[in-house]
Amino acid sequence: MLHRSVLSVFFAALVLPFIGCATARTYVIDSNPSEASVKIDGSYVGKSPTEQKLVFGKNKQAYEVAVEKDGFVPRRFSIPQEGTGEYFVNEAEKKSYLKVPLDPIITFKIGSNPEKATVKIDGTILGETPMDQSLEFTKNKASYKVEFSRDGFVTTSFVLIQNYRGEFHVSQLYNKSRLMVTLAPITKKLEILSDPPNARIFIDDVYVADTPQKVKLTYGEKKTVSVKLVKFGYVPEARDIPISYQLGSISIDLKESASRKMAYIESHFDKEKNRISFRVKYEEAYKDAIEKSPNALQVMRIVQADNVNELFGTIDISDNYLAFAKSSPKNDINTEGYILQVDALTRVNASIAEIINGNLALIDVVTGKESYVLTDAVKNKSLLQQLYQVLDLIKKEKKIDPYKTDLIETQKKLIAEYSQMTDLSLEEISAELWAVNLGENFRKSKVTYAEGKWFDTDPIIFGKSIYFASNRNSKDFDIWRVSLGSNSGLTRITNAPYSQDVSPSINRDGTLLAYASLPAGAQEYQIWTVNPDGTLPSQLKNGQSPKICGAMIVFARRSLEGKSQIWAMKTDGSSETLISMDTKSDDFEPSVSPDCKRIVFTSNASGNNDICTMKIDGSERTQLTTNPSTDIHPSWGMDGNIYFVSNRGLLWSIWRLKPGTVDTSAVKDKL
Hints:
The chain is mainly β and 671 residues long.
């Protein structure tokens, strides 16, 4: 009995110390969110929540735990033998409960408009947009500073938090968040001055205002902004303003132009309405008025228009007086705006013609920098949209049959739009007759008063009277007579209903009057004669601009090919003779020398309207003027000089030249 007790004491003394040093404890390891992988000392033990019995002893005083889940920051911690640990929640039923919060890893899809912006996060450059970037949000790192920068744009930054839903947030899908930042282009205020002022300011080819003006320059992807100044009568000046420009203003001096485009009014006959109307046209005029032709001497300006909206019609000269018609619209023509419109429509039609011919190089005429001009030009917005659609279709398909689209029809509509835009009726324009005393320092006096209602034109001086064409008291043009010195003695000579009678001419003894008439229904003007009192009207031949000299009438007529040619016939209409030898150009507006041996006329044989002369038989054809401006309406004066109308000198004026053969001292005088 004693032996058994001794053995029991010995066993207890040997084993109990070891049993007292080993401790077992049950842990319930959970996570938020759950279903995370749990590893203990590197070995996978299950998904959270998981219950694990851990035994601690002298050689095992702690366990290393890892809680991992895709899209979240892994958590690694120790469970010590003593103490509850960081994630202890409570003790129940001899179990220790641990709750491990998992912080999310969020992937951001980062974009910008425009792309290729540099992205910095917390001051570190991580790349360029578009890019993906994963960020960990933890207790100790709850936010990031994100910065976008790009040359030419304003730097944009903001603070990014875990549940960011600010202005740059686009969408959220699981742990992926899409951010899109629109970068604002850098802008600068710049005051633009010009000498002279009131120049049109174009910023990157878009009109914004007139000088002086403060404007906004927008850079963005551009390193420079183009500033262009345009003023009527001056050379356009352009400056490239770099983004680094520091001054708040810029002053640009404009140089007077040696040439400029001029808008002017040209009459035409509307056959459908049987009415004379007017069309605004434009062309280049040149400041240099010195006539360099060896066949013209002593070019002198006699009368100058007051502004660009005034122009002169046909003229006539007696011994002491020059008579002319001066017309102007009742409302001033916006010359610059009109020229922009015509230029745009010209480019559009040229582009369409190129497309029809298979060349797509000019399609961009309706895009980018030209679009503002086109929009101003084509007032019909639906037509403009139609043009865009057709050209877009051609761009996409590259090769296309224009006849299978509305392209040609669109072109026709554009031309019709242009015609409608530029047509002026007689209600919108008026003209009066003036006389210049050639012997009294070119003193001007008004002969007729149109009162803004009528159009008086085509004056012919005979003695102390002027015969002219006018629509006064009627919608039709008739031949009238008025006293040279005043607006008195008004007498209507012709009065045919629905007939347009123009271009009167009278013989030297005042017994016969010739004129051009377009009766209702006629396709061409006809030459008629009548007694100065309006009796015995007689139709002769088809033609225009008749001039009587002796027993002969010189006139213009169009050929079957559509070219205007100079003809002659007797005053009874017999013995028609073609005088013009050049059948490839237009010869028109004839006037006869005092001795009836030579003719002065306008011709476009040089490619420009110039004043020419030739003998009555068509020989010795000579070009008198060579100035690149437009020279028209010649008249051979009784003093032997030739007078004509020209827009040389940048305003319409009446000029005088002496026909010559050697150019020794060509001069210009401004009166």
